[in-house]
């Protein structure tokens, strides 16, 4: 294990050098001390060179929990940002959805959790797409990814109940697949403590799911609980996809592996307690992008660019220009 000349990057395997490129950088892009505005989502909109993020939970003036969605304008220097007024309840993870954004609404005591589509342009109109599993309400939908067949895969842990803004859970903590085209919804994987981040490998033959059971929503931490990334094969039976061959892909030694993404070479990136950790497709820890305080989520921009969400701060990471995120391929 060696440290690179550039502070903030740590190499565990020589293959990480190709990812870093010749001159990697780590730049503080924006800071907001009033509240933790940069917690989750991280949705890069290439057409407008903007970034949409969600805050950590806040206590509103009426005593109710809330989350802000913020649009960051990357065309200005320094960058500017604005809070978005939407109806998405307790927004968390998000992903590009055509010209729109798909947000995970965790829900509240009075509003359903589920998948919400929001326009990426003013007035940022939003609508609930799916909010229950055959009549049983979701717990607090956390993160989401879209398959090339347009099916939507998402995780549903019980953090909302533990953090006292959702009713008692009526479903196990599971991974789901919703097909708007077919009008079907299926439970795809169970057996998690707290399923959290989710992504596909570039060829969509593998699904990665993070289990953040080490940290419960009430603040308790237990090092003997899962802080783990699981990999599943996507197998087809009778014309339908199933998640098979569940295996432990990686264990995060610092904090929990939260948001998760792949690059086009199949390397796996996850936001952890010390920043962003990077593994090879074979589960070998290649290196770390060290950010004090850790990273809950992040997204790729263009040509090796990563936007890392660090609660009160957003960092821009520049890796080698050949690195491209699998989600957008930019």
UniProtKB/TrEMBL annotation:
Domain of life where this protein originates: Eukaryota
What Pfam family does this protein match (any one)?
SGL
Enumerate the spans annotated as SMP-30/Gluconolactonase/LRE-like region domain. Answer: 111-301
Family annotation (InterPro entries): 6-blade_b-propeller_TolB-like (IPR011042), Oryzine_lactonohydrolase (IPR052988), SGL (IPR013658)
Q: What is this protein called?
A: Calcium-dependent phosphotriesterase
């Amino acid at each position: 294990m060696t440290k690179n000349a550039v502070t903030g990057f740590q190499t565990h395997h020589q293959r990480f050098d190709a990812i870093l490129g010749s001159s990697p950088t780590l730049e503080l892009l924006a800071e907001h001390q009033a509240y933790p505005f940069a917690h989750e989502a991280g949705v890069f909109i290439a057409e407008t060179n903007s970034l949409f993020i969600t805050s950590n939970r806040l206590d509103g003036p009426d005593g109710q929990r809330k989350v802000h969605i913020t649009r960051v304008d990357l065309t200005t220097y320094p960058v500017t940002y604005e809070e978005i007024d939407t109806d998405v309840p307790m927004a968390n993870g998000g992903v590009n959805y055509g010209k729109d954004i798909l947000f995970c609404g965790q829900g509240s005591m009075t509003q359903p959790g589920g998948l919400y589509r929001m326009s990426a342009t003013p007035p940022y109109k939003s609508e609930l797409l799916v909010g229950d599993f055959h009549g049983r309400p979701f717990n607090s939908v956390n993160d989401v990814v879209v398959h090339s067949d347009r099916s939507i895969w998402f995780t549903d842990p019980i953090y909302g109940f533990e953090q006292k803004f959702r009713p008692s859970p009526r479903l196990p903590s599971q991974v789901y697949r919703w097909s708007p085209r077919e009008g079907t919804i299926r439970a795809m994987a169970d057996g998690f403590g707290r399923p959290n981040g989710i992504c596909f490998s570039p060829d969509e033959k593998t699904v990665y799911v993070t289990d953040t059971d080490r940290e419960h929503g009430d603040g308790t931490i237990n090092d003997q609980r899962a802080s783990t990334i699981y990999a599943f094969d996507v197998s087809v039976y009778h014309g339908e996809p199933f998640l098979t061959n569940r295996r432990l892909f990686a264990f995060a030694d610092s904090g929990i592996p939260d948001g998760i993404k792949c690059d086009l070479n199949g390397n796996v990136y996850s936001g952890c307690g010390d920043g962003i950790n990077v593994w090879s497709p074979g589960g070998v820890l290649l290196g770390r992008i060290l950010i004090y305080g850790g990273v809950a989520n992040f997204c790729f921009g263009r040509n090796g660019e990563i936007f890392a969400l660090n609660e009160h701060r957003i960092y821009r990471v520049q890796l080698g220009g050949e690195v491209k995120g699998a989600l957008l391929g930019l």
